[in-house]
Design goal:
The complex is a heterodimer of chains A (about 280) and B (about 475). Chain A has about 280 residues and is an alpha/beta fold. Chain A has two domains: about 80 residues, Translation factors (Elongation Factor Tu (Ef-tu), domain 3); about 160 residues, Rossmann fold, CATH 3.40.50.80. Chain A has nine helices and 15 strands. In chain A, strands 10-9-8-7-11-12-15 form a seven-stranded mixed sheet, with helices on both faces. A six-stranded antiparallel sheet of chain A has the order 1-2-5-4-3-6. In chain A, strands 13-14 form a two-stranded antiparallel sheet. In chain A, strand 4 and strand 5 form a beta hairpin. In chain A, helix 3 runs parallel beside helix 4 and helix 5 runs parallel beside helix 6. Chain A is globular, with a radius of gyration of 19 Å. Chain B has three domains: about 130 residues, Fumarate Reductase Iron-sulfur Protein, Chain B, domain 2 (Orthogonal Bundle); about 160 residues, 3-Layer(bba) Sandwich (FAD/NAD(P)-binding domain); about 160 residues, FAD/NAD(P)-binding domain (3-Layer(bba) Sandwich). Chain B is about 35% helix and about 15% strand. Chain B is built from 20 helices and 16 strands. In chain B, the strands form four sheets. Chain B has a five-stranded parallel sheet with strand order 3-2-1-4-16. Chain B is globular. In chain B, about 50% of the residues are buried. Classes of the chains: A alpha/beta (about 280), B alpha/beta (about 475).
Chain lengths: ~280, ~475
Amino acid sequence: MPKILEKYELAPKTHYIKVPAPLIAKHAKAGQFVIVRVGEHGERVPFTIADLDTQEGTITLVVQEVGKTSTAVGALKTGDEIQDILGPLGLASEVENFGKVILMGGGFGNAAIHLLAKALKKAGNQIITIIGARTKELLIMEKELRNVSNETIVMTDDGSYGRQGLVTQPLKELLESDKTITRVIAVGPIPMMRAVSETSRPFGVKTIVSVNPIMVDGTGMCGGCRVTVSGKTFFACVDGPEFDGHQVDFDELVKRTRMYKPSELHAMDQCRMESKIESLPKA
Amino acid sequence: MNPQDKLKIQRHEIPTQDPNIRRTNNNEVATGFDDKTAIEEAQRCLQCKKPFCMQGCPVAINIPNFLAEIAKGEFVRASQIIRDTNSLPAVCGRVCPQETQCEELCVLGKKGKSVAIGALERFAADYEREHTDMIITMDATPTHKKIAIIGSGPAGLTTAGYLAKLGHDVTIFEAFHEAGGVLIYGIPEFRLPKAIVRKEIQTLDKLGVQFAFNTLVGRTTTVDELFADGYKAILVAPGAGLPVFMHLPGENYCGIYSANEFLTRVNLMKAFRFPEYDTPVYCGKNVAIIGGGNTAMDAARTAIRMKPEAVYLVYRRTEQEMPARLEEIHHAKEEGIQFLELTSPVSYQGDENGWVKGMECIRMELGEPDSSGRRRPVPIPGSNFTLPIDTVVVAIGAKSNDLIMRTSHGMEVNKWGYLVVNPETQMTTRDGVFAGGDIASEEASVISAMGQGRRAGKAMHEYVMDK
């Protein structure tokens, strides 16, 4: 079982985790993901590969606590073991010299676009990065992204850092003022990717989003991660996770992502109750 | 005992849990023979000089010999005879379609009822497992030839066992976190207890077979890289591939599963014990299973154990044309699955949250026979009706996943995407790469996959020894 080499909190409830995975590091490319299982009773959950080091044979995951598994990952410490890591899965991002590209991250998505930013830079692209967070303390990966971007725009909902507003505002301004932008790539929560796609649609600029539906095996076997793109069904795990944002059926994606919400809450409650019991002072 | 006396003994059927009780639990449906019944049943075997039964066994078990040992009360000896050619006897005794294999060819079946070979195979294997430490004798000299097996389902396990017994250095690469393939993720607990599968797989551990879990060949490594790492021969046996959907309007509503997903959640991920296990599964009040094969029966019977109000099995032909085993159909009916024959879904209706709430169906009638020899179902215009349902499991098969083939060179596929193999050796069009199970034959049964695995093992042994 892989032992966590390094783990720290990038922002509240958002964790940086480096694990040894030599074969994954050797084969992984930007845009791919891994399936992680925490503990023998754990669920299989996909996480984007945020960084890798082929020399060390390590990969980095950035995990935001949203469900039971991501919360359990968040509770792990350096030196703890992760039950299973399978990958790299999915198709790699398309990387070539597109010219001028806008990379957009929201929340944990800032980490997901990091590896892609490096690859696009290497391919000779000019990169404008737009990242956002609710508030300053939740903003992650700013320094790393600035290092690989020609220009970086930071947005916060409350104006506590950078510009106040949504990431779609500077996107719209850029698309209006600069006709040489050939591609927009967005990774983040579904509402953010949807808003980005709607903003770029009137400009006709190719927009790629990375979807993150519920998965089980991650190898194409179960079909749980069905996504409708251009009216056709695709499996995000083998045909994606990146798709044309102008063609993705976001309504369906949102609903399918919420499929287990009632049970998940139940599992979370159960899990909180157990940890409460454990943390009671011993009599 | 003389043949006249043997013929007087009636066939013993394997006892099963009462349908009304078993549909409320996950325990095994068939409970197995006791010692006395097993001996009596085995005594029915006429010990034919030319045993036709063996011709019906894809892994060539010496059936008369093991039956003779059971008749003598030598149960462990009987099990060892089976294990000479079959590394998964407790599995096969449970899931093989014996009625179309060994038992169909049994001479006794011509005038009366065949010997219950399957139930006796199961009995012997269970007896040895429960009463001994499963001693595995390994007398082969190590050959130090590295062999890679991709996939730990019935084909992969069989080839691995066969080659390990010959002294080869065998590693199985498995994408999941547990070995067994369809035996673990697909076939339900009540038909094949997972503890038994695990125990049989442990016999491969004892033979020195190595397991590399969480390894998806085509992504974590490739066939080309395995050869570069010193593997001399490779078996490609990754299993079922991609589930087939019908591409009907509304098929992506929440609550509509592929059989692979529904069964994997329940069996491998143990969703039936949620929230003790983290993986959930949804089973509503009215469940529709689409299909008529063994997988459809497994899904239907899994669903009914989650205590819905109704489970419908929707099939476009009639019961006579269903590919499922008769026994499975019979068990499903006993457990209260309602069969809707000559019916096919045409669309799904959903609620405002994207959950399926209804299934529009059309009635069918049987027309002329098609390429499979079965009469083709033809829709009856205007016969549409809507069934209120909130869970659907689509169990109409799978298609090939070409990941392994497209990430390494030289492995040709046929027009359906399955690997082209030499039927005698199971070798693909790439030298040293063999294939077995679903990837080489579309929908293989457990035992046909094992037969292929055995054939491949034999050819792989010859191949590496010639090198």
